Known about the structure:
single chain, alpha/beta, six-stranded parallel sheet
Amino acid sequence: MTDDFNPPILNQTWQEIQGKLRPGQQQMANWSGGPLAVSAVPGAGKSTGLAVAAATAIARFRLHPQNQLVVVTFTRAAAANIRAKIRQQLRDLNIPATGFVVHTLHGLALYIANSHRELSGLDLNNSTLILPTPSNRITRTGVEQWINDNPKLYQQLIEGTVFDGEETERMRRQSVLRTEVLPELSWKVIQEAKSSGLTPEKLRQMAEQIPDDYQILEIAAGLYENYQRILQERSLIDYDEMILAALRVLKHKSIRQRWQGQIFAVFEDEAQDSTPLQNQLLDILARVPDSTATTPSPNLNLIRVGDPNQAINSTFTPADPIYFRQFCQDCEESGYLATMDQAGRSSQIILDAANFMVQWVNNAKPAGTEQPFRFQLIHPVGLQDPQPDANPVPAGRGLELYQPRNIYQTVELMAQRILQLQEQHPSGKFAILVRENKQAEFITNVLRNPQTYNLKISLSQSGLKLYDTSQSARHSKIPGELLALLQFIDRPHSPDHLKSALKTLGERTLIPPQDFNALATQPEQFLYPGPLDPPQSDSIRAGRAFCCNLLKARLELPPFQLISFLALALKYEQSELATADKLAERIARQTAGDNTLPGILTALSELVSSERFDPVEIDEDQPGESPFTRSGQLTIITMHKAKGLDWDYVFLPFLHEATIPGSLRVSASGRFLGDFTLSEVARAQIRNVLHQQTGSHDGSDSSLTVARAWEQAGNLKTAEEYRLLYVAMTRAKRLLWMSAARQAPYFWFKPDNLQDQKPCPVFLALKAHFFNHFIFVG
Length: 778
């Protein structure tokens, strides 16, 4: 490929742009064809580098709609952001904003499939898109069909490791298998297998090579087969079906060559989160027509940009960072690797802490043979870097480490420090990053009601706005919660519906936590206990009273009022009630002419199964600004949701070993199967085989036994938890505040149940290494 970038009119502008780029960004901008892996550290400016590289390629090679650049990212918001940046770069070069398109990966696949419907097998006009989950009715239906078709395997699961034949225990185990174990296995295996191009038949072949007492992969293959059959029978598609449809189209040589002829190159962002099928699609499109090379070669016009150290989705999605790591390794061996290791986001002490963590974790090997991090340190930018206030002066010590007495003192210390900083910097941006939403709820409750917890500090008079993003997470669950309660009041004697209702009430802390499986096995005895039945505990009576009140409303209210009533019964807050009202209006429109409870259930079930219902946000001020990073605001947000964002002052409380890295847990209800979960074992076994097939494996195990698979699943979780902490640490610009309270709850749905807790191992290592940054509190 020749370099035609020599228009004199562009030289001066191009030189100005080049002068503002960091070394890694310059390598991207100088790309002139072939493969290029770009491994970027947090805050390195990879989206800016990608936009400059795209605009430069468009100008250099005079791209146009018949020979264009395809830029791919993973979310619509990211696509809009990168599209705007490329257009701005083209305006600076005085070039029309043509010659490129920006797609989400699934949007690109859908475009290809929809352009050749006769070959893709996808009929969008008569299909409904679904997002499979363990509670999805499609998943549950597939489980019930598998149970009916496989009585021997099902009986083997019921018997577990030990079983005395007692009927009540049998019913409890059946409930656990039907509502928890098998739906979870189905969901995780379908995600993993389908996104990797594995069919149920291939999964069965794998099962023959990896025998175990339960025949886990054989069960998984049957569940997967049922799921695919239900999709076809009901004209449903999922996101992986879009990728598969596009690949079916591109199997045809003439059509594949036509698409390859129209695409000059493919640039991919966030490549660490891609799956094998997605990689396959982009690899085909980026190749010169008829090129069949299987490793990076000059015939592959593909730039993949990502940070393998920020891969934090692989334990709950089919994303697997091993494939981007392999691409980086292959490109490095061929001289096609660019490293963006300069970042201007954070103060030097914060960079030092993040770099120390990477080195310490890799050396300590807490994840066994799984190495959590690619060895890639963050360096500050040069003195002439154009980023305003790059590598800013730290606030105070820049890194502050605390070990408070308990979680209440933790919140008090954070509030005190935030008030000090706000007084000095009223427009500062503050964030508290937590591992789970229950922690966010606890912090919000304490900050909004300090007198209740005998705290001497309050944010209410400071003018600092408090924004708890966990509220949005709760809002997204509203349709599912209301559906669970409606299904219960429609069929109260159904064990599944009773259990779902009890679980919903328990998660909302409206009834005491208890063994809902045991209660659901005998609905009549729970709801209407007789004089000869065992006496009920206070917790059971509280749950029964709530459920009976719901059933009473079913008799007294017309169906169209039930959603609003249930929203009040669940004690929804203002914005949650607004979301419930919006949902009720939507269902009322859909059920006009059939406003019965069965009609409402059908409409609501379809909505929950097939789409995400957007909640109502009461606060809509400053619409052009991200609600997470506003000035003069304290944002409480999970570490996962914080990726891609940054704040001046970041607080990381509750850094305990039980949470980070934590461990894979086997629920007490499912322990009769053994000290492992079927879903995690199956996924580890599938990944192990896939890694061997792609050459991305160390070759230590040709097939994983149940014990080894469970161990490997735990190692993968440990590695990802440390990467998640790394992401959280690198969100901070001027201050990184970290703490591990000496007393904290083990489970956060009971925050008052304080126990002695060990700090996260990384926290102890930071405390020992940065001892001048540890602040003692009594």
